[in-house]
Backbone:
């Protein structure tokens, strides 16, 4: 008979979590020591920001099955909204980030209300149109309050008098916020709301027949997703101290979707796998930045043809195959007695 894969105990999980946390906390010092500058830490900060943004996209796409090609709009709304609140209304930065994200989530809910009845390419086209509207507002703002094509500058995060004006300083705040958002995502997808998302993704008509308010939960998914992605945009604004209209371009939405598909949808770790892999690949191919969209297209084709479950799904399959091999669990597979 085939031996079952043993489950790791609570102590093993605790050790793994503590080891991962220790590695994450020591990462900036190690990278600065080996490379002699803050640029690798800067990339790590971007990875954390993108994990939050792509995790938000995963909620609406991976869990509830709604296609969005305009999430860069929410990313830009978080960045510009937070910057404008700080610059013109003297909001403290953290409350400004939250306020901008809540506003973007409310706009996402308003968008989702009519869009919740759309499916397939009709829904994706509506999100593309929304993204283009946001881009035009940013580049042709009243009184040029957004800086139009020049962009908008804002302040760095200041926590209790400690200015986070370098990547090595901002990294720890980004790490804490990313962990908080991933924890919240875990609770959401394991709740009644998450189960409703999955039912809608699998079969909308069956979910409706089971008494699930499909329109309501589609709006909820879009609202949560918009909050995640806009908060990531606010993190970006106050890490760099600047936001440009490029944050609302279609290629930014394509980047988010590429990261999600390449990592794996409908999982907690899939977005992490996708963001880390694509970011490292983009950095390795920085000399070919004019061909970024072409590279994203190749990655999508790889996922469609060879990795339908994404990189994380492929890693899981390999693990299960190795675990199912005779002798992989420490002994030979035993057959039934004749």
Residues:
């Amino acid at each position: 008979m085939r031996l079952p894969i043993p489950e790791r105990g609570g102590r093993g999980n605790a050790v793994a979590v503590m080891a991962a946390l220790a590695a994450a906390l020591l990462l900036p010092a190690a990278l600065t020591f080996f490379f002699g500058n803050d640029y690798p830490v800067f990339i790590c900060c971007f990875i954390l920001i993108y994990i939050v943004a792509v995790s938000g996209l995963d909620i609406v796409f991976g869990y509830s099955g709604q296609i969005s090609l305009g999430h860069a709009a929410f990313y830009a709304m978080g960045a510009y909204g937070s910057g404008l609140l700080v610059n013109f209304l003297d909001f403290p930065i953290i409350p400004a980030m939250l306020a901008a994200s809540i506003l973007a989530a409310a706009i996402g809910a308003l968008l989702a209300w009519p869009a919740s009845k759309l499916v397939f390419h009709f829904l994706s086209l509506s999100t593309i149109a929304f993204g283009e509207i946001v881009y035009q507002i940013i580049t042709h703002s009243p009184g040029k309050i957004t800086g139009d094509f020049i962009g908008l500058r804002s302040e760095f995060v200041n926590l209790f008098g400690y200015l986070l004006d370098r990547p090595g300083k901002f990294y720890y705040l980004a790490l804490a916020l990313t962990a908080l958002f991933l924890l919240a995502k875990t609770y959401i997808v394991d709740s009644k709301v998450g189960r409703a998302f999955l039912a809608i993704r699998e079969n909308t008509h069956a979910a409706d027949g089971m008494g699930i308010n499909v329109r309501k939960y589609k709006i909820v998914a879009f609202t949560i997703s918009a909050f995640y992605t806009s908060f990531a945009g606010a993190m970006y604004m106050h890490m760099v101290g600047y936001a440009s209209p490029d944050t609302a371009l279609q290629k930014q939405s394509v980047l988010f979707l590429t990261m999600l598909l390449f990592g794996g949808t409908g999982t907690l770790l899939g977005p992490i796998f996708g963001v880390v892999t694509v970011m490292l690949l983009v950095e390795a191919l920085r000399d070919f930045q004019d061909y970024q969209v072409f590279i994203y297209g190749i990655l999508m084709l790889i996922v469609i043809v060879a990795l339908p479950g994404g990189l994380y799904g492929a890693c899981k399959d390999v693990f299960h195959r190795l675990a199912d091999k005779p002798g992989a669990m420490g002994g030979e597979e035993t057959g039934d007695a004749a």
